Amino acid sequence: MGARKKVLRLGATAGTTALISAALAGGTAHAQDADHCIESLDTGEKECFSEFETAISAAEERTGNTIAEQKRMMKSKQSSRAMTTAAANDIILGTFFIHEQYGGATFTLYGDSLCSKDGQMEYVYNFSGDWVDSISSVQPWANCWIWLYPEPDLGGDRDGPYKENTPYVGDYMNDRTESVGFS
Amino acid sequence: MRKRSWSALALSSATAGLVVLAAAPAAAAEPTNRQLLEQCNNGTDTCVFHPDGPPQYYTGPARQVGDSVYNCTNGVQRFNVSWSDTTSQSNSVGIAMTTEAGFGEAFAVSYEQSYEHTWKTSHTESQTTYVDTGPYQVGWVERQPRMERVSGTYEMHFGDPYYGHYIWYVPFEARGPASDGASEAIVQHNRDMTDAEKAACP
C-alpha cells in the first residue's frame, strides 16, 4: 500500500516520505468482504467496512474529535512538525467509487488539512490491490481538487481537475487510475 | 464527549483552531442536524451534498385514488373512475425543502449533476381508470407510487466557527417521486357490498 503525504508545505525531506511509505507497506491487508475503506493520508491508518454509511461515519469519527483531542493533536503536531502552519485536524478529502454514479466499493481518504490552493499537489496517494484500474466515479471533499493518473506516483497521463461530485470520470481515465493527487 | 459519527467536525487552520479552542470550551453544545441544514447556503462559505450511491427506487405504499364505485345492479358494470393523486418529497430531517434555496438547492444541484435529471419535489398523476364491477360489488382503484430515495452527507464549511467548528458533516436522506420514467402499479379491486351498502342502494 502506498499511502503517503506529499508534504510540500510542511517541508518534509525525501527521507521522511520514504520512511512513511515503508511503514505503510506493511499495513492492513485489503479486506475482500469489506468493500468500503477509509484511510488517513496523515498516518496511513486504514479500515474497511461492509457498508459505505459505516465507512463515512468512521471517517467522520476520525475527523471529529473532542476539543480535548484537538488540543492534543495540535500540540502533537506542533511539537513534531515545527513548520506546520495550516494543519489542525483531519478532514475528509475525497471518495472514490468502483462504479459509475457512486456505486459499488468505495475508498475514502482523509488528511490533516484543507488544500492550500497554491498550485502544488497537496496530497498523493497510490492505490493498490483491487483498487488499481478500478475507479469510475469520484467526489472531492473539502476544498481540494482531484487529479487521476494511470501510473503510480502521479505518473503517465493526467485527468482532472475534478472539482465537484463526478458520477463518471469519463472514458479517458475510467478504470485506469493507479494514483491520485489532491490540490 | 465524543462527537456522534454523523456530526463530526474539523478545523481549517491551526491559528483559527486555537482561537476556537480558547473561545469555545468543551461544554459547547452541538447543533442539531436541523439547525445545521438551516445554515446551508445561508451562513456557510460552502455547502455541498455528497450522494452515497445511485438513487434507490422502491414502491410506495398502496393507497386508494378516486372514489369507490357501487354496482347496485344484477349485472356487471363498467365504471370510469377519474382520479388525481400527488406524491411529495420528504426527508430524514423533517423540514420543508425547496430546491430554490438553502440545503434544498445544494441537494438539487448535486442530484442533477450526478444523475442528469431533475429532482422532483412532487408529482401529480391524473387518469381515468375503468373498473369492471360485479353485481352488488364495490370497486375502487389503488395506486402504488414509484418512489426514489437518495442519501448522502452534507459537507458544510463556515467562515467563522459555528458551535466551535469550521466544518460540519450532516447525514441526510430524501425521498420523492421517482424520476426514472418507469411505470407504476395501478390496480383495480372489488369486494362484495356489506348489508349496509346494499341497503343504501336506490
Automatic annotation (TrEMBL), chain A:
Superkingdom, natural source: Bacteria
Keywords, in A-Z order: Signal
Signal peptide: 1-31
Gene3D superfamilies recorded: Crystallins (2.60.20.10)
Entry protein name: Peptidase inhibitor family I36
Organism: Salinactinospora qingdaonensis
UniProtKB/TrEMBL annotation, chain B:
Keywords per UniProt: Signal
Residues of the signal peptide: 1-28
SUPFAM superfamilies the record matches: Aerolisin/ETX pore-forming domain
Protein name as annotated: Peptidase inhibitor family I36
Lineage: Bacteria, Bacillati, Actinomycetota, Actinomycetes, Streptosporangiales
